[in-house]
Amino acid sequence: MDRTGQEQVVSGTAADMAGAPAGDARPAAAADPPGTSLAPKGDFATLSKPHLSPILGRYFERSWDHGEGHILYDSAGRGFLDFASGIATTSLGHHHAAVTQAIKDQADKLLHICNALGYLEPVGQLATLLADACPDPLDTVFFANSGAEVVEGALKLARRVTGRPGIIAFRGAFHGRTFGAASITSSSINYRLGYEPLLPSVYLTPFPNVYRYFGDDEEAATTGAMGALRTLLGHEIPASSVAAIIIEPIQGEGGFNPAPASFLRALRALCDENGIMLIADEIQSGVARTGKMWAFEHAGIVPDVVCVAKALANGMPLGAIVSRRELQERWGVGAHGTTFGGNPVSCAAGVAVMNTIAEQGLVANAATRGDELIAALNGLMEQDERIGDVRGRGLMIGVEFVKDRATREPDTETCEALVQACAEQSLLVLNCGTHHNVIRFLPPIDVTADEIARGVELFATALRALPQHADAAGA
């Protein structure tokens, strides 16, 4: 299919890709910027490390220079097929013509005034497009800067509107790293360690992890997880004290675990029965990623609040809370606010993203290409016992690695080694999961069939090159 303003850049052998030039259209800088005199040319790590905080964990130590289409280039000019997409963010690839032009046009007009001062065209346009892309009655948008910010806002909305204190979230979830978001995050103990006391009146309940805890039985997962939730409501906090239940329809950092449709429907019914707000965290799974505009649509439900970010502006910082208007009216004028949220340049990029998705049929493309990706990865699973499961929807696919298919013991070492091995084959994928043993595939949503085939080929080559034993793979 056509990709506006983007070349077909994936062809030839892995060696060809590894040596791919940066291209005349986007040359590397001719001279080092000020302050780089002590660093070798193109070595941004040496430049950065003396003064950049070491707290941020990094998948790679590579220096990145620019991107073109679905290829990300390092400072040496080597091209990588980008199936990480900035963690589901650059969903239209790099240097996308329509998005880039929208950013330039808005930057030439106005960078910022703060939406509290009045109204701006791209902000109103994007709010309209976003509301139109959501099912009724979701029709009102509050813009922020990031996923964590919109989660924080959604929790505030729920407590203030319901007058209740309790928040229920699911084990293995990732909702962000600010205090409220970290309080409902449990995909890694490191996100919580040393920060207590966290937000009070937060309760965690088991997620219906079909593969790891329920033997691939979706109905058993639904029954088990709903049973645990009802036990929580019967013994720890009454439903009448719960403001909201927040869930990722597909857990992201927790391992790309889709919640069964039957579970989401049961959860919606429970919330309706008890006046509890249902919040869908679509920060990683939303904006056409799963072959529908929103992952909750696979279950045929409508949440009360949707949290959106990441892909909304293809890399520009932007997040959104979407709900029915009555909820935000009850939230109240001045109850929440932001200086930078809904920045006009970010919103202009978001308008271009939403228009491109509609014009190029990218929801359907994500579904079709996702079916091809799952089929190809299932073929690899038949050949390699280290792959325990392939799961996901659309172009949000996880491949779980195990030491033994019978016991399903997580194989963290092989998975982490595979991330690096794929990079050596010029393919970018990342890992996730509570045991870091799941490779996540997040290709751009305008990816082509040829690129899917190429990515799987590079992945298979990297996997075959790893030793079969986990200890050796880790070494």
Structure commentary:
- This protein is α/β, with parallel strands linked by helices.
- The chain has two domains: 14-88 and 362-474, Aspartate Aminotransferase, domain 1 (Alpha-Beta Complex); 99-359, Type I PLP-dependent aspartate aminotransferase-like (Major domain) (Aspartate Aminotransferase, domain 2).
- It is 37% helix and 16% strand.
- The chain contains 16 helices and 18 strands.
- The chain has helices at residues 14-18, 44-48, 85-88, 97-109, 121-132, 147-162, 179-183, 210-213, 218-235, 261-274, 325-331, 344-359, 362-383, 412-424, 449-465, 470-474; strands at 64-68, 71-74, 79-82, 140-144, 166-170, 202-205, 242-247, 250-251, 257-258, 277-281, 305-308, 319-323, 387-393, 396-404, 409-410, 427-428, 430-432, 438-441.
- A seven-stranded mixed sheet has the order 4-12-11-10-7-5-6, with helices on both faces. Strands 13, 14, 15, 17 and 18 form a five-stranded antiparallel sheet that branches.
- Helix 6 (147-162) packs across helix 11 (325-331) and helix 13 packs parallel to helix 15 (449-465).
- The two termini are 42 Å apart.
- Residues 1-30 and 470-475 have low confidence and may be disordered.
Oligomer: single chain
Mean pLDDT: 92
- The CATH topology of the largest domain is Aspartate Aminotransferase, domain 2
Low confidence ranges: 1-30, 470-475
* Percentage of residues in DSSP E strands: 15-25%
SS content category:
alpha/beta
- How many beta-strand segments? 18
Annotation field: number of helices: 16
The biggest beta sheet reads: 7 strands, mixed
Radius of gyration: 22 Å
**CATH homologous group name of the largest domain:** Type I PLP-dependent aspartate aminotransferase-like (Major domain)
What gap, in angstroms, lies between the N and C termini? 42 Å
What share of residues is helical?
25-40%
**Strand order within the widest sheet?**
4-12-11-10-7-5-6
Shape: globular
Give the second-level CATH assignment, the architecture of the largest domain: 3-Layer(aba) Sandwich
Q: What is the CATH class designation of the largest domain? A: Alpha Beta
User: How many domains, in number, for the residues?
Assistant: 2
